[in-house]
Amino acid sequence: xxxxxxxxxxxxxxxxxxxxGGASTTLLRGLFAQIGAALYANVGVDLGNCRQDLALxxxxxxxxxxxxxxxxxxxxxIAEDPVEPRRLARALLPSEGALFLEGEAAAVLSLRLxxxxxxxxTPQLWVVECGEGDEVFALALSLTALLTAPEGVDAFTIHxxxxxxGALQLAHSGLLSPAxxxxxxxxxxxxxxxxxxxxxxxxxxxxxxxxxxxxxxxxPPVPALDVxxxxxxxxxxxxxxxxxxxxxWHAALKPGGLxxxxxxxxxxxxxxxxxxxxxxxxxxxxxxxxxxxxxxxxTPPESxxxxxxxxxxxxxxxxxxPSALVDDEGRLLDxxxxxxxxxxxxxxxxxxxxxxxxxxxxxxxxxxxxxxxQGVDDDAPSVRCFDTTxxxxxxxxxxxxxxxxxxxxxxxxxxxxxTIDSLMPADRGDAVGLQAALExxxxxxxxxxxxxxxLMLNAMAQKLTGHNQREALGAPISDVLRVVSPVGECLLLPxxxxxxxxVNAQLTGQQAQLLCRDGRRLALELRVNAVALxxxxxxxxxxxxxxxxxxxxxxxxxxxxxxxxVTGLLNRDEFExxxxxxxxxxxxxxxxxxxxxxxxxxxxxxxxxxxxxxGDEMLHELSGELRVRLREEDVxxxxxxxxxxxxxxxxxxxxxxxxxxxxxxxxxxxxFQWLDRNHAVTISIGVAEIDAATDNVGHVLSLAxxxxxxxKEAGRDRARFMGRDDEAALHHSxxxxxxxxxxxxxDGRLFLLCEDVVTVAEPHRIVYRELLVRMRGEDGGLIKPxxxxxxxxxxxxxxxxxxxxxxxxxxxxxxxxxxAHRGIIYAINVxxxxxxxxxxxxxxxxxxxxxxxDPARLCFELTETTAISRLTHASRFVTRLTxxxxxxxLDDFGVGMSSFSYLKNFPVHFLxxxxxxxxxxxxxxxxxxxVETINRIGHQLGLKTIAEHVESLxxxxxxxxxxxxxxxxxxxxxxxxxxxxxx
Length: 983
Hints:
alpha/beta
């Protein structure tokens, strides 16, 4: 096969039976190795251990799902995207073992389920981390062949759980890949049907497969399970995680239930929970219920003569966890400094007080009951958690009590609370009680002598280090507590400085890691304190805790604060910081940059039709399509639901054009595959340049956003460049104005003018007044209607503007005496957006009724275009208000739809001749004839005609000769404040 540029795989390479070595070049092998290395580095999955043919099929499916052209872009994607390695690993898991059970395992499983059916029970099976459902459906087919009970396939239920919503969506479809069909035994194919895209289980069988969205350690879908399928999961967990998961599965199974693992997987360290079935690899039987022994709990040292109580006292008092010792009545026998700081200075001594009196009254009985609970084994301390409210003189505080119950000692319980930083000395207690408490501490404690030899270590210290007490006693502290830096350099413990200078030391989790005996590294928080031993010799107490989880949570929170969780891209806040840095560079170094706003066209339809899971998957895949076509130094971020931002540093507007067009083309070629259908996607892009004239980050982002809006209104699937496209510039200017409209309504900067309309026969007789809205800017200057009305229309603020005009006008007219301005009609303009608003008509009627304005005084003006383009809404609007007594005028007639036929059935009273004809009728015979024609048609329909924009009294005579009824314009009367007119 010839070398393919960019490592693009031809169709069919990643199909069943095609090994990479026989259908690839050296370049492709190298890319495959890169993917394997990234997979191993991120999730510990060794691609080399997978069956090659099935691994290639899984990889090919993932490439097609991400719409990748080949291995080269995918190798880059999997190295950069923290989510993609986990998804690929999940797709590869079934390839590490056959989907269908091995013969011996199948036999054991058959006997177990047959016994269940004999008891007339329906077996319940759970497939953990089921991915896209292959394992669930393979199990359903296997059981159909295995079970011989009369109930047939109706006799079992299989539950599949998965944390990936997209994978579950595919599982719900019941579709299986061609690779699955190739593995299916011929005897089972009768239970499936073959489709073009693969295989699908018959509905009668698929109906017994239930899927649940849940994380790995969540409660099982149903209680008392017969079988848990956990294949290819344990091998990717560390020892602690494996142990916790096995405990979780043990609790979920019925007594005698089966755990099915992949060949080669074991339950090492948890043999007391599960026993391997003879001759059945991968099948484990749940052992009988038993108390799980506490990890690392050991008996106290046989002799404590060499250790003074002060050594224990120092360790107990130095712990930053508020701790106390109580008896079975809850009386405080001892407490450390952090616990003492819960009470303000000057209060009565705590020793002898009952713990219950320090807590809220509603919790006291529960605490008493907890402390007096029977059945605590001497060798198995029990831990209980209890939320309560601690009473404090300075203010109550909610806290969680960790109650370590213990029997056979002078203490009943060791109580730990949340960490408090302030310390207060305490000096009471006995060695035996303290020693028992220290064994129950959640922090590790090691006490060593002046030579650094270990004299004592508690249970937690043994668990964290991996060294038991027998081998640790007498050993050098550096052999047991091995501390390294985050880069692996060995760190010297500050024991000598602590002994020589009496200076306590502390290391944080960012500074130090504990190198455990099994090779694990744990983030370590360590405190070193000087203590006095029983013989008066100096010693050292080392208190340490595993803070790995805390640091991981902090890192996760830090990552989430700067990244989008769906796509893994930067979020808006971080993107704006990058844009701010680019703005600094252009001001200091003269280096230009370009900002792009990208909006997915019609993305809302994806969420509405396919669901939000599909929308999230599209965003994830589309971010990958964009990322692979950008340079290393470029910045890609998700700004909101369907909006992305791109920063192209070092490029001018002209230089960025080619890259912008490449992004458009890449998305145009991309197809989003969901279930069995492909969906085309397009984007709109707005581009703005960061140069020396850029004021701030908000300014350049608003420029790009305006250009993006311009691209969408121009038809979508295109780019607009601010500074080069006049339409984009208009969008930006209107975006600035539209914000002022909303603020002007709130701030009272709108006002009404009115223009008089007179009869042509008697030019001094006013019969009609048109009300016009005007706006003052924040600086007090007048903003022309031509600036703010189009912006309000474009950004859907006209309905709010019309409501203000309507309320203001009717309120002022309602105050007029009944006989004032008799015979004059007041006209109010209504926009198309308000006509289409189903609530606007009721609003007008309510306002008329509440202000008691005579409807005969009111006229509503609609433009010809508005009336005809929204004919149904307009007819309803006009009919309702006409029945109320209002009148209507058709404005700007002659330049809109010019649909004269609509006038026959449209119930208006006045026809306003557009001013563009009236102004120029003396100089243009065509315009003169237009005025004559409109006037004649209006009269034939029984309408009054009004000539607009009469700028000179010289036009009155020609209008009179034509028979035009009324005239309006600056030649008649300029606009005046409505407040002045109504005085």
